[in-house]
Write a structure and sequence with these properties.
Rossmann fold; 43% helix; eight-stranded mixed beta sheet; 460 residues; five-stranded parallel beta sheet; alpha/beta; 2 domains; homodimer
């Protein structure tokens, strides 16, 4: 079956009747839910990954992602009914496939340069056995122009075929929120941009049918990739702006959370909140995909670049707040026992990718503190090279300072009376996630600091 | 009557029964609609302004603001029924008043330093005859701390009374959108922050009762002023971000409007569009109120500062697009006839305050172009020192280049066939406001450029 020759109706029918084989390359946070979604929609899905453990786990109906509600059960179902197979042999999988969906990671290196080597390897592997008439879809986040200038030439070179004529290529950047992948896959509209009209049309039809979402058709892969980056950079820049306000308002004796919540009552304002920095697989890296393209044409997006640096520096600000709060109770960081509550990069995920809390942890360790960690998503697990606490009490026992690093739901109503009993009072409390009311912390005797919270008032 | 001693219910009753006298100082775009709103709610309102012409016009039931729908009729009504009087004698007006509402302009000077002299003069005038038990409300946009450090000392010094004890002071920054003042006054929640609880309570009750809007009570005048600045700076920074994307995407061959419209389908994105810069009474100035406070505490908000500069430089970018587009048809700016369509700083207002189009006009004139102007809100009026055209045809007759500077509703469906007939073809069309589809302009034979529009394609 050559999917590139099918009409819309034929695609719909073929999908329902199990006649379309989709190979998803990369079974991480994006690839696995996507593979499951296509399998649920009726496709024959082969998930390919270089990680043997992940492949073996999926083969047995298991799932390595623990924080995507409902995913484990779905994986078990589609593996049991034969809709989803997993393999480490990408070339074999490609040989069977009508559609290739590339969901490999695209990190940035230590110089903040995008590392597309997984995309290159995937293209190389795909090109070895790609059949005529197939469609290659890139979901991985890449800079605008990467599909045109890297993916297409690589596939053409490896196959000896002509993209657009012999096979289709389209970008359909993933747009879902980690921790909510399954919900978002079916509701957040997808952006599809192909190298020609047919590529766009076939890819759009596939996603509309398989996921049931709206598809916005754009004029090229680079446009689709620009959309992905623009929306994520919007968030990164606005969080940086909130952080800039936070630091200034601390000095002006203004509570930034009070300000932002009041702003949110205006019709054209959308609130972003300050914090200890920005982590996760997307926001800390996405700016660099665009910056590197800006460098090439002599037009660096400096606002984006500067915003990134503001966010990158926030862990240092939190360390300064810790130092100040401990100073208020006559203690130094050196020799203090500091309990960090929350290490995940955002609430309610089992994920520490590029979490800013790691920088806070390392900085405080370097300064001579004895640091414990507690995170309800990582109870007793090794994190940052140490074993995290099995429960809150184990972590805060005799602490001189409590630092809240993630706004997990468990931390929204902390029992400050209990915490002050267990802590080595007089103690400090530093809230980088505005889950504790400053007055409440002070009422319980803590020397309090919070990112963006007025601290002209000393400890009680 | 001493309003500061009244309970909530007493304030409500007194307002309805015409027992509260409100003096609005400054009858501009904020003050006049506010005066009318208080008069409609039952207050006795005295509008004070130093501009004799404005006062005389209002006395006769007229209105100097032409683009606020419904305002003229309302002014006539409340003047006729005696609810609104106007005067140039502020001290006399203050003597009668229970509530003072300061709505004077707060521009920035040529060095981008806020000029609070009108606020100072207003406070000085008010303090001469301010009665005990009155409430002074500052609606003018000022930096956080200005009410505490400038307004309060000035009033105390002039009156010999103690603020908080003898009279109340609160900030309630105006939050409505020029051109929609009347609609917004009744729906956009107000932010009220007083120097003490009583000031906040009385001011909040007044606005809730008189305007029928929700009031968010915040902890201080400086918090209220920070809210006003934060929400406007959010807009300024996001427009700068859109402009940064626009310029980069032009070079990458990506249409920024296509990108932003696609981004807008994501749940956590709010679209801002690029353009020729940012004008009006608020956005180009508001950043400096905060910057100057940042300078004082050694913490300049550089992201805000940089965003402002991006927006300030956009007129130059438009001039470059004009130069390029004319070059495509073998013409120089020098000697070309250029028609600028739209000079108002935003659509559908009779207002050129800090409009970026002025910079474009001046730059093109300096380069030797013969520039005509047409704006449906200013037909035949003098603008930028020249008489603007009475209609579109008069402006575009034999034009070598058409520049769209404002997205007035009249420009959303321009008859390009007619325009190309009247223009001196081959001609250029430069759209700074994305109201013309690039392909349509090119189909009609124009060398087209648009802010953020792909222009790797030359003229047809």
């Amino acid at each position: 079956m050559t999917i590139m020759r099918l009409s819309k109706q034929e695609i719909r029918d073929a999908l329902k009747n199990g006649k379309i084989t989709v190979c998803v390359v990369g079974l991480g946070r994006v690839g696995l839910p996507t593979a499951v979604a296509f399998a649920k929609a009726g496709a024959q899905v082969i998930g390919a990954d270089i990680n043997k453990n992940v492949v073996e786990l999926i083969k047995s109906g298991g799932c390595h992602l623990r924080d995507e509600a409902g995913l484990e059960e779905l994986v078990e179902n589609v593996v049991k009914n034969g809709r989803l197979r997993a393999t480490v042999n990408i070339s074999d999988a490609v040989r069977e496939a009508d559609v290739l969906v590339v969901c490999v990671p695209t990190p940035v290196d230590e110089n903040k340069v995008p590392d597309y080597s997984d995309v290159k390897v995937a293209c190389h592997d795909i090109s070895k056995t790609l059949k005529k008439g197939c469609l290659v879809i890139i979901e991985s986040t890449v800079g605008p122009g990467t599909v045109e200038d890297l993916v297409v030439p690589s596939l053409e070179k490896g196959t000896g075929m002509k993209a657009g004529t012999d096979f289709g290529v389209a970008s359909c950047p993933e747009r879902a929120d980690p921790g909510k992948m399954l919900q978002h896959l079916n509701v957040v509209p997808r952006i599809v941009g192909g190298i020609n009209e047919k590529s766009t049309a076939v890819a759009a039809e596939l996603y509309e049918t398989a996921l049931g979402t709206k598809v916005v058709r754009v004029s090229s892969p680079k446009t689709a990739n620009a959309v992905k980056l623009t929306e994520n950079l919007f968030r990164d820049v606005n969080i940086a702006l909130a952080n800039e306000f936070a630091i200034l308002y601390e000095k002006l004796g203004i509570d930034v959370i009070e300000v932002i919540n009041a702003c949110a009552t205006k019709y054209n304002f959308i609130p972003h909140y300050p914090g200890p920095g920005v982590g996760g697989p997307c926001l800390p890296q996405n700016p660099y995909y665009l910056i590197v393209e800006g460098v090439k044409v002599g037009n660096i997006p400096y606002l984006v670049r500067f915003a990134r640096e503001i966010n990158d520096r926030m862990p240092e600000h939190v360390v300064m707040l810790v130092t100040e709060a401990l100073n208020d109770v006559g203690k130094t960081v050196r020799g203090s026992k500091i309990a960090i509550l929350g290490v995940a990069y955002k609430p309610n995920v089992h994920d520490v990718q590029l979490t800013p809390v790691k920088k806070i942890y390392e900085h405080l360790k370097k300064m001579g503190a004895s640091v414990t960690i507690y995170d309800p998503m990582f109870e007793g697990e090794e994190v940052f090279g140490i074993r995290s606490a099995r429960n809150l009490s184990e972590s805060i026992e005799k602490a001189d300072c409590i630092v809240i690093g993630t706004a997990h739901k468990e931390f929204h109503h902390l029992d400050l009376a209990l915490i002050s009993q267990m802590s080595n009072m007089p103690a400090a409390l530093v809230d980088a996630r505005h889950v504790v009311a400053p007055s409440k912390a002070r009422d319980h005797g803590f020397a309090f600091r919070g990112v963006g919270r007025r601290h002209t008032i000393g400890p009680k």
